[in-house]
Amino acid sequence: MTSIRMFVLAYMIFLILTEHALPYLHGKRLFGVLVPGQIRYGAEGAAVIRRYERHLLPWSIACLIAMIFVPIAWIYLGAGAAMIVYLIATLRGFAVANASAKKFAVASHGIRTANLTDADNDNQRIGWRFLLPLAVPCAAALDVYLHWQQIPERYAIHWAHDGTTNGWATKTFAGLYAPPLFGALIIVFLAGISLSILHGSRRSSPTSPAISLCTLFAYMVAFGSSLTPFIALHPPLPYAVFSPLFASLIVVSLLMLVRIFYRMFKTANEPGDGDYTAPEYWRGGMVYYNPDDPAIYVQTPVGGFYTLNFGNRASWFLLARIVLYMTGMAVLAHALWR
Amino acid sequence: MTQPTTISIDLSSSVPAYRQIVDAMRVQLVEERLKPGQMLPTVRRLAMELGVHFNTVAQAYRELAGEGWLDLKHGRGAMVIQRETPDKGNSSETPNPFGERLRELVAQMRADGVDALRIASELKSFAQELEK
Fold it and tell me: Same domain, yes or no, for A246 and A153?
């Protein structure tokens, strides 16, 4: 089995396991619907989960078989198509299960509680967190600008286990400036998302898992986007030094990622209703639409993520800004690599 | 670490949300759980947390500022200020709508479905607390 097929298969198995585990992620909710404990862990809850699993199982088997037997020439196309089909099947299964779970939903209540502290008024000051990761690609671009003449026309970018070079890149404007430029743009995007979550959601704080995730991604992007300019200008570190250093960075990042996801899971399952949103405002269990709610973001019914309140006009403006920003990046990428 | 002061409102109640906010905050102010100099959340933040329109919270803040409890600083939120309690005296000749308001409150609670005995018990325990 080729390595690319192994990779695609591993990713598909991960996706399938995640989707099958979906009903068990939240201790109090059944497919996003807050239900009494005796229903959640009783026969009714088990029946709803069984129906969802039965709906998903044929799709899971079909996608796995497709990944094993698809010709290697079509592996990328096949993998992409299989994942899209599988996600659509999951969404449909979730929507059906959500509709079934709504029959058992605890009665909606209108009780809202708020802390009378000004602690949240200073939330916008988290911008400084992104300054250091933003400075890294900027410094890398400046380094390239100041030492452009010293960069060889062809420089090493990949090395084998014995330290011999097995990958080269040619010196081009796009090849050297694009990674830090796009890195900086992605970090600005992540900072914007973090600020908008703080500004437009309930129960958010600078230490919330979603903000921590954006911060971690910003540091990962800062490191990744500065690597090419760095290795073009500086002699590579000995393999014995570079390899464990690189591996340690990946391990630390993964550990932090696991910790953040654990906190997300814990936040979603903590006592109380959390960011309570009545089930009648959730369409298909996934789309929140409540024009009377001033929140732009609300916590998703499954896990500690956030989703937009599509009933709020400000959410649509935010979505338009995100699409415009991404379109701008795509146009810039096209112009650079044309 | 002190517990943060919280207020709760019921969006399904027939009492307007701004009135519930004013009443809940006044309780905290009278009982000095909110102290002079303390900053309150911004209108936007409190509206978001309570799931009500910004104008609802702004109206509540304005009413409390009108009563002398808050100082509204433009763009910087609201601050609790020292308020001098108006001296109404104990004279029965002083026009005092207190009894009327209490009756209105009880009627409102009964209209919302709260049991009369429970209201009486709450009033008794509250009166005992005041007498201490």
Answer: yes
Q: Which CATH class is domain B17-80?
A: mainly alpha
A292 in B contact zone (CB under 8 Å): yes
Q: What is the pLDDT of residues A217-252, one digit of tens each?
A: 999 999 999 988 888 887 777 777 777 888 888 899
Residue range A28-46: average pLDDT? 88
What is the pLDDT confidence band of residue B1, given thresholds at 50, 70 and 90? very low
**pTM beyond cutoff 0.90:** no
Q: Do A177 and A134 share a structural domain?
A: yes
Q: How far off is chain B from A117, nearest CA to CA, in Å?
A: 5
pLDDT in tens, A261-282: 888 877 776 655 567 788 888 8
The reply to whether A110 falls in a domain is no
Residue of B nearest to A111 (CA): B10
Supply the range of the domain harboring residue A11: 3-102
User: What is the arithmetic mean of pLDDT over A245-260?
Assistant: 89
Residues of B in contact with A202 (CB under 8 A): 48-49, 51
Q: Is the ipTM of this complex over 0.90?
A: no
| H runs (alpha helix) in chain B | 17-30, 43-50, 54-66, 98-111, 116-131
Q: Are A153 and A221 part of one and the same domain? A: yes
Residues of B in contact with A294 (CB under 8 A): 44, 47-48, 51-54
| Lowest-confidence pick of A57-61, A120-124, A157-161, B56-60 | A120-124
In a domain, residue A198? The reply is: yes
Is A332 contained in some domain? yes
Phi, psi (rounded to 5 degrees) for B64: -70, -35
Residues A317, A296: contact at Cβ < 8 Å? no
Is the Cα dihedral A312, A318, A320, A326 positive or negative?
negative
- Report the chain A residue with the minimal C-alpha distance to residue B47: A294
On whether both A96 and A143 belong to a single domain, the answer is no
Residues of chain A in contact with residue B38, where contact means CB-CB under 8 angstroms, are 118
Q: Do A200 and B42 touch (CB under 8 A)?
A: no
Check residue A124 and report its DSSP letter: G
CA-nearest of B33, B51, B62, B39 to A122 is B39
In the predicted model, is pLDDT for residue A203 greater than 80?
Answer: no
How far apart are the C-alpha atoms of B78 and B75, rounded to whole Å?
A: 9
Count of positions (residues) in chain A = 338
* A114 touching chain B per CB within 8 A: yes
Provide the CA B63 distance to its chain's centre, in angstroms: 10
Verify that A42 and A186 share a domain, yes or no: no
Same structural domain, A192 and A237: yes
Of B11, B39, B42, the CB nearest to A112: B11
Mean pLDDT for the stretch of residues A90-118: 87
Whether residue A93 is found in the same domain as residue A170: no
